[in-house]
Amino acid sequence: MTTSTSRTRRRAAAAVPHPSVAERVARGKAARAEVPRSAHAVFEPPPDRVDPVTLLERQAATRVPELVPIRYGRMLVSPFTFYRGAAIIMAHDLGPTPRSGLQVQCCGDAHLSNFGVFASPERRLVFDLNDFDETLPGPWEWDVKRLAASMLIAARDNGFATGDQQRIVVDTVGEYRKSMIGFAAMNNLDVWYSHIDVDNVIQEYGPQFKPKHVRRTEKQLAKARTKDSMSAFSKLTYSVNGSVRIVDQSPLIVPIEALAPGTERDEMFEALHELLRGYRRTLEFDRRVLLEQFELTDLARKVVGVGSVGTRAWIALLLGRDGQDPLFLQMKEAEASVLEEILAPTEFGNHGERVVTGQRLMQAASDIFLGWLHNPSGLDQKARDFYVRQLKDWKGSAEIEQMIPQGMAVYGKLCGWTLARAHARSGDRIAIASYLGNGDVFDRAIVEFSKAYAEQNERDFQALATAVKSGRIKAETGL
Q1: 36, 233, 330, 383: least surrounded by Cβ within 10 Å?
Q2: Is residue 375 part of a domain?
Q3: Sheet (strand 326-333) strand order
């Protein structure tokens, strides 16, 4: 029996308290009395604040060395892309800030680009959180602050007026607060089944925008629906001697034979194949039966994201009934959450299981192939954890740089609702709603926090740029 399985069984056997609604309301009010909502406006970096570049260098120590410069290059595109890769920096900055004492399953990296659209198992396009590498139980307000600051920084990057920047943050946080109050009044099952259907969003908000903006959004959504294993198959593979192989796009996509030529390729292939067999055990039985109808054909290492660049990520090509029935899986390394340094270590013995459990808890619908595995000996002879999901399944992200102020405000509301729903599933939604209250005191406080943190993010962005210019670190741009 694994350690994580033992912990899970002990947790399932433990008595679960069920306080009344009145007691939960009182808990929220007591938290408000101890930590006023206005206290969340404050962000004052301490004199002994850890150098942000040092934190990034420390994080890079466990990553693929030749890929780390790509990460820095992507972070240096703008203050917003820097923010996307700086979750570890913000985690350390949030540590000393006021806490309400109300816990949820945190995303840990809830910036606006970690929300998006993807297919539900019922083949509907839904909007939800889609990145859980840093998920961990923690203060709900940390996710809200990460989201709100990302909205302000993105609005600044887009050159929006100051008034528009603040309105976007107010709309985002206000929607979180109002939605949490709404979820507090709902039955447990109704909260669990709540989700955002993208077609309904277009119907609701479309009339508020000019037709050209609606058409552009509909075009993006149509494009998202084409992003699946079949489209990846046409772009990422070629045929050689009757066999299908993944293309070499080094350093972003490196086929297994380029990493281990000759007979070493076959040895590595079989070792990774064996890991995938173990991964099957983490799936529901029906999904396992489906997966077993596919045969592993090829593997490649792939660079993904901004903050994740340098972690080990693999893509696996599997074929089903014939050579035109592909399934692409992504195996992404899961390291310790950046929140663990500030809060507490995860209860799971496998960080892939930590990610998957957090994702299933926070998302309304998760990938049918979502699971995890443990590699006891990788290319560098070190044990590593991974989580597995489909590479693409109608996945789409908002084009932040193309947004107008009104569009970003609506997008912020969608993110605010979604984050509130995710927190309501795992935390005490009634206590959190009671803490937030009906007024906008918390909303305004987070605007002030976001403004202060945006300034800090700008300074940290410049610190990274200076480190590159001085030769302290190397950055590769354009990749």
Answers
A1: 383
A2: yes
A3: 253-255, 295-302, 313-319, 326-333, 384-390, 371-375
Share of the chain above pLDDT 90, in %: 73
Q: For the segment 242-256, what is each residue's pLDDT rounded down to a tens digit? A: 889 999 999 999 999
pLDDT of 26: 97
How far apart are the C-alpha atoms of 293 and 475, rounded to whole Å? 43
Q: Which domain holds residue 284?
A: 229-340+365-390
Q: Are 350 and 4 in contact (CB under 8 A)?
A: yes
Q: Are 196 and 418 in contact, with CB atoms under 8 Å apart?
A: yes
In sequence order, the 6+-apart residues with CB closer than 8 A to the CB of 141 are 40, 99, 100
Tokens 């009757």, residue located:
242
Residue 14, domain member (yes or no): no
Into how many domains does the chain fold?
1
Report d(CA 366, CA 337) in Å as an integer. 20
Helix, strand, coil percentages, rounded to 5, for the chain? 55, 15, 30
Quick: pLDDT tens for 427-477: 999 999 999 999 999 999 999 999 999 999 999 999 999 999 999 999 998
Written as six digits, the tokens of 215 are: 């058409």
26, part of any domain: no
Considering only CA atoms, which of 180, 91, 83, 102 is closest in space to residue 141? Answer: 102
Strand stretches in 111-270, DSSP E: 115-119, 125-129, 136-139, 196-197, 237-240, 243-246, 253-255
Q: What distance separates the 2 farthest-apart alpha carbons in the chain?
A: 72
Please provide the average confidence, as pLDDT, over all residues in the chain: 92
Residue 467 lies in a domain: no
Q: What does the buried/exposed string (b/e) look like for 215-254 if buried means 16 or more CB atoms within 10 Å of the residue's CB? A: eebeeebeebeebbbeebbeebbeeeeeebbbeeeeeebb
Residue holding tokens 């995860």?
346
Here the tokens at position 30 are 């007591």
Per-residue pLDDT tens over the stretch 184-240: 999 999 999 999 988 888 888 888 888 887 888 888 888 878 888 888 888 999 988
Reduce the DSSP state of residue 364 to 3 states and report it.
coil
Identify any residues that bridge with 165 across adjacent strands, giving them in sequence order: none
